[in-house]
Write a structure and sequence with these properties.
This protein is 5% helix and 46% strand. The chain is mainly beta and 398 residues long. The two termini are 65 Å apart.
Length: 398
């Protein structure tokens, strides 16, 4: 998921940074010839996904573009086999506002579960508050999708389109049901974004990805940018849908104008989130550290040592001995002395090697200064860490 999201975001940023105008391909005109056959009745009409205020944002006579609010996609299929589709994408990156407007026309045909769009023209206009506007066009091209009419998860009839590999392309609703599940203002995700040690959260973009298959539904996902400086900052996404979201953040920490370098930052909440949720923590890491394997846990031996009946474990010494020859290697062995009173106590050895340790415990219970009759002793034997919840039962030396 991490690499897929990074690839998606990298493409968006690359497109936003581009200010050149490609050479247009031949334009067959704004009025394509009608299709050779009719389309299925259930496909005919206007379909929509997202939340744009209008689909009348391009004037084919003057070539002027309007600026509708929101983000979304629409498709119009006519009985004569012709079609029109459009897209509005609004995005904000580092105080730069990007708007992409696109329209396409052509003819369509349906063969079983396959929808083929024979595009005759496509026009795209990109405006960028931090760069030049650009216009491009594309001529004849075919697009093939899987097509299925069925109810969505909320029981609303919808048009589902898939790519040729089976991945989702989009879910569209009849124009009258363009937003069958309005975004309740009470559904939100909020919390705190945290910079790496010594870092700054200013300029961090946080992305609330509306989970759709293995990717994000562009129109239903949301972004925000942190403008305040500091090691942390609060964030809140309001008006979310009753659906799972994936929360991630990224920033140009080295200020070189390019994202996803090793010195840039990235963070994510590793599980899908169902709003409303508050108090979330989004920890940022440097990308050079993000994919590093987790450090191996320290090897340990731990457990409980118990005294004989009516005895006391205070002063008992537990030995974890690496045997070399016929003696303990002092540099590699460890000892643990019980300081608390009572019939039993915990012991723990940490930072051990992956090698067998000979475990035993003893105490000068009679105070003679020697290990002799009346003292405590237990021999547990060889143990290879990690080994926990062991029990060492001391016995009185006879």
């Amino acid at each position: 998921m991490f690499k897929k999201i990074l690839s998606l975001l990298a493409l968006v940023v690359l497109f936003a940074a581009c200010s050149t105008t490609p050479e247009p391909t031949p334009d067959p005109g704004d009025n394509p010839e009608p299709g050779s056959g009719s389309l299925p009745q259930e496909l005919q009409g206007e379909w929509f996904a997202g939340s744009i205020s209008s689909i009348q944002f391009y004037d084919p006579i003057t070539g002027d573009w309007a600026a509708p609010n929101g983000s979304g996609f629409y498709m119009i299929f006519k009985a004569d086999g012709s079609y029109e589709e459009g897209a509005v994408i609004n995005s904000t990156q580092y105080n730069c506002s990007l708007q992409l407007l696109g329209v396409a026309k052509g003819t369509a045909e349906v063969n079983g579960t396959k929808l083929t769009l024979h595009q005759t023209q496509r026009k795209v206009h990109v405006s960028n508050t931090c760069g030049n506007a650009s216009d491009s066009s594309e001529g004849i091209k075919d697009y093939v999708y899987g097509i299925e009419f069925k109810d969505d998860a909320f029981g609303t009839p919808a048009l589902f389109l898939t790519e040729t590999d089976g991945s989702p392309h989009g879910t569209f609703y009849p124009w009258g049901n363009a937003d069958p599940n309005p975004e309740p203002s009470s559904l939100s995700l909020s919390g705190t974004v945290l910079a790496p040690a010594g870092g700054d959260v200013a300029g961090t973009t946080i992305y609330a990805c509306y989970v759709q298959g293995e990717g994000c539904h562009k129109a239903k996902s949301k972004t925000l940018e942190i403008s305040s400086h500091g090691s942390s900052a609060s964030f809140a996404f309001e008006g979310l849908e009753n659906a799972p979201y994936f929360l991630l953040a990224f920033g140009d920490a080295n200020s070189n104008g390019e994202l996803f370098d090793d010195d840039d930052t990235y963070g994510e909440v590793s599980t899908e989130l169902a709003p409303p949720q508050a108090g979330l923590e989004l920890q940022l890491y440097y990308l050079k550290d993000f994919d590093q394997p987790e450090p191996e846990p320290e090897l340990s031996i731990s457990g409980t040592v118990t005294a004989p009946a009516d005895g006391d474990v205070q002063g008992v010494t537990v030995f974890a001995c690496v045997i070399v020859g016929d003696a303990c290697d002092e540099a590699r062995s460890q000892v643990f002395t019980i300081s608390s009173r009572g019939p039993s106590a915990m012991f723990e050895f940490v930072g051990l090697e992956s090698t067998p340790y000979y475990l035993f415990a003893a105490a000068d219970a009679n105070g003679s200064g020697e290990l002799d009759a009346g003292d405590y002793f237990v021999e547990y034997g060889e143990v290879t860490p990690p080994a926990n919840e062991l029990t060492l039962e001391l016995q009185v030396i006879q």
